[in-house]
Design a protein that fits this description.
The complex is a heterodimer.
Chain A: H1 2-13, E1 24-26, E2 31-33, E3 42-45, E4 49-50, H2 57-66, E5 76-80, E6 85-86, H3 87-94, E7 101-111, E8 115-125, E9 127-132, E10 135-140, E11 151-152, E12 156-158, E13 161-171, E14 177-183, E15 194-196
Antiparallel strand pairs in A: 1-5, 2-15, 3-5, 3-7, 4-7, 6-14, 7-13, 7-15, 8-11, 8-12, 8-14, 9-10, 9-13
Chain B: H1 4-15, E1 24-25, E2 36-38, E3 41-45, E4 51-55, E5 60-66, H2 78-83, E6 89-96, E7 99-107, E8 112-120, E9 133-142, E10 153-156, E11 163-167, E12 173-179, E13 194-198, E14 201-208, E15 211-218, E16 230-236, E17 257-260, E18 266-278, E19 281-291, E20 297-308, E21 311-314, E22 321-327, E23 333-336, H3 372-375, E24 385-388, E25 398-402, E26 408-409, E27 412-413, E28 415-419, E29 424-429, E30 433-438, E31 447-451, E32 457-461, E33 472-477, E34 480-484, E35 495-498
Parallel strand pairs in B: 1-5
Antiparallel strand pairs in B: 2-3, 3-4, 4-5, 6-7, 7-8, 8-9, 10-11, 11-12, 12-13, 14-15, 15-16, 16-17, 18-19, 19-20, 20-21, 22-25, 22-35, 23-24, 25-28, 26-27, 29-30, 31-32, 33-34
Classes of the chains: A alpha+beta, B mainly beta.
């Protein structure tokens, strides 16, 4: 079963089957609820962009200025089987470099109501920048593991209806992945959100 | 008049040593009672007419006359004097229902002595309801028996509501009797008391997690810096004992594990009293026979009460110094949100190459500590705070120092928390978040640091703009500090202070 899923993803993106792509599949259905721990499983990913791979605050800013989100990005929309999105699997599956690269990612969250005092909570390997509805909310620098709830925003408002998360993740070397969820005013995962495919 | 705090700061600056604080204001007292909070104000009473010390914050204390001066003739009742004598020493106080029971020592020629009872409904001497009713002697010693009925200590057992009194001194046994919670007098006056310890003073039982602990004071008092007072303890599964120390020695046979001894500038700790502030914060009151920073007089102090391996441990209040502030939740440390520089400068990653074993590394000269002056030129004018792995870098070193003339809370003054060597001070902002700003003494820049019973710290701003809630520094993520309500069951709001 797993191999069939892998093949489907590989066929979608057009290269050889790889066990490393086992965690990602092409998105299926118009929407996908977050999981019981609040993690977002559907993302749109851009193919990795080569960058110097330095991870200081200044280097990350420089890389993003040099490689802004393209005006008409060609997204790969994928569902992840795990709480996190394995970007190493993604890049390797595409036959692209996995080190010294920048990934642009985005997703659209539908909230059943306005939620105040909530936080976006992410983990990323490695440095990353995050925006919610075009507002910068999280900045992580330096080489780091993707730890659940590593970078957490200040208190935010999630508006009723569509909310867009956008992020840039830069990897120096080795594994690269990220995870994201929202926490409520009591720092508990918000479970009644879903991702809608634009 | 130059404050004691200012003198400490001055001496610290000269000597380079961290000052230890022992409250402010009128702190002179001997044999203080357990501190009781009434209508938001802290009260304790001492020897010599039962002088009243009170405080609205637990840090700065004022003398408010004495209990005895509010009684007819200004002395114990006739029956108490007959059983003991015309003195009023070393009281202890407990609230039961809407009554306060104040037990006090009324010695004559020791060991002839009595424990008298006063009953009141308010501790506020300015209240129209203020007053004490003499309820007579509760227990006494006849001057011959192996006991000296002074130094009462009271426990209202949280498990069953029963009320107990211990008393005694250096003429034999420390004794325990049960009291009637309705009257404050003995419940079974014809039953013999329990002997629970021997030849000590200032006994008082406390309870925690299935154990009764008996705190007593050993050594000699009342000789200033020559006093050998020290606080010791034993524990028992039953209120009636036996109370054994950490080596299994019964306190009736002289046992007693050390709880607090002379340290630093304070000699002769005695007269333990539990001050439970709730939410996992416990403190204890005591007096030192001699405070060397106050000319060797006896003074009140309040210190953190910790628990370790089933025993209470005397904690120490935070002293001025430079600290790393590490999250118990994440292990990351609080830092100014600026790009750090490695201590000693950048250096290339060393990866052995070639065949054969690499040459042994050759030590170089010592690398100096990183100071803000080394790197702060690269810091932006304003910066928030975050959490990051400890790297010994300048943006991770916090100086904690008392804020001048800002008052305090039980045991400590309000602190400022600033990046060492800078004016960048931790500041609470609207929305319950954090940033750094130049220190201006604003309430949102004043911090209360309470040591919790596990030894970690709770850190709270005095005020948060736009909020009336009391919030605490919290690790909401590995890299993100914020302010939230304190949850004693969570590591989010527990912090370790250590050498950076």
């Amino acid at each position: 079963m797993k191999n069939r899923t892998v093949f489907a993803f590989a066929a979608c993106v057009g290269f050889a089957v790889s066990a490393l792509a086992a965690t990602l599949t092409p998105s299926k259905g118009a929407s996908l609820a977050v999981d019981a721990r609040g993690f977002v499983h559907r993302w749109q990913l851009l193919e990795p962009i080569p960058v110097p791979g330095r991870l200081t605050e200044a280097a990350v800013q420089e890389a993003l200025q040099a490689n802004p989100l393209p005006p008409s990005p060609a997204w790969h929309t994928v569902d992840t089987a795990n709480y996190n999105v394995n970007l190493y699997h993604f890049a390797y599956g595409l036959g692209k470099p996995t080190s010294n690269v920048l990934f642009w990612v985005t997703t659209t969250i539908e909230s059943p109501r306005e939620m105040t005092g909530i936080r976006l909570a992410i983990g990323s390997n490695a440095a990353s920048r995050w925006w919610l509805n075009d507002e910068p909310v999280i900045a992580l620098n330096d080489d780091r593991q993707a730890v659940i709830d590593d970078g957490v925003s200040r208190r935010l408002t999630l508006r009723k209806g569509r909310n867009v998360i956008r992020a840039a993740i830069i990897n120096g070397g080795g594994a690269t992945d990220f995870c994201a969820r929202f926490l409520d005013a009591n720092d508990q995962p918000i479970q009644d959100l879903k991702v809608i495919t634009p | 008049m130059k404050s004691t705090l200012a003198r400490w700061l001055l001496s610290s600056a000269i000597a380079g040593a961290a000052p230890v604080f022992a409250l402010e204001g009128d702190t002179g007292i001997h044999d203080p009672s357990t501190i009781v909070v009434h209508a938001g104000r802290y009260y304790t009473y001492g020897t010599g007419g039962l002088p009243i010390l009170s405080s609205d914050d637990g840090w700065t204390w004022q003398r408010q006359g004495s209990v005895m001066s509010a009684l007819p003739d200004g002395k114990p009742g006739a029956e108490t004097i007959a059983r003991g004598g015309n003195n009023s020493w070393a009281p202890d106080l407990v609230r039961v229902g809407d009554q306060y029971f104040m037990y006090y020592s009324a010695p004559g020629t020791q060991p002839k002595s009595a424990i008298g009872l006063l009953v009141g409904r308010t501790l506020d001497p300015t209240s129209p309801d203020y007053g004490w009713r003499d309820a007579g002697p509760v227990v006494w010693s006849d001057g011959v028996e192996d006991s000296n009925a002074i130094d009462p200590g009271v426990l209202l057992d949280p498990t069953d509501g029963r009320l107990w009194l211990t008393y005694g001194s250096y003429f034999g046994y420390i004794r325990l009797v049960e009291l009637d919670p309705q009257t404050g007098l003995r419940r079974f006056p014809n039953r013999p008391p329990f002997n629970v310890a021997i030849n000590s003073e200032a006994s008082i039982p406390i309870y925690r997690d299935g154990w009764y602990y008996l705190l007593v004071t050993h050594g000699s008092c009342c000789q200033g810096a020559n006093s050998t007072y020290n606080i010791r303890m034993g524990r028992s599964r039953k209120i009636t004992g036996p109370y054994l120390d950490n080596m299994g020695v019964d306190m009736v046979e002289g046992g007693g594990k050390l709880f607090a001894a002379s340290r630093g500038r304070h000699i002769g700790p005695g007269h333990f009293g539990l001050l439970d502030l709730g939410q996992g914060v416990q403190k204890f009151s005591l007096h030192y026979e001699a405070d060397l920073d106050r000319g060797g007089i006896s003074v009140l102090d309040i210190r953190p009460l910790l628990w370790r391996d089933g025993w209470p441990v005397a904690g120490d209040n935070v002293v001025s110094g430079t600290y790393s502030i590490e999250s118990a939740r994440t292990g990351t440390v609080l830092e100014l949100a600026v790009q750090g520089s490695p201590v000693g400068g950048f250096r290339p990653r060393r990866i052995p190459s070639g065949s054969g074993p690499p040459p042994p590394p050759q030590p170089g000269p010592p690398i100096s500590n990183q100071e803000p002056a080394d790197v702060a030129a690269n810091w932006p004018a304003s910066a928030d705070v975050r959490l990051a792995p400890a790297m010994l870098q300048a943006q991770q070193k916090w100086t904690i120092a008392p804020a001048p003339n800002a008052g305090g809370y039980p045991g400590s003054p309000w602190f400022r928390i600033s990046i060492a060597g800078t004016e960048r001070s931790l500041t609470a902002i609207a929305g319950g978040e954090l940033t750094t700003r130049a220190f201006a003494g604003a309430p949102e820049q004043l911090w209360r640091i309470d040591q919790l019973t596990d030894g970690s710290y709770r850190i709270q701003p005095r005020a948060v703009p736009g909020s009336s809630e009391t919030l605490a520094l919290s690790a909401v993520g590995s890299s993100m500090p914020t302010l939230t309500k304190f949850d004693p069951a969570s590591d989010r709001q527990r912090w370790h202070l250590g050498a950076p």
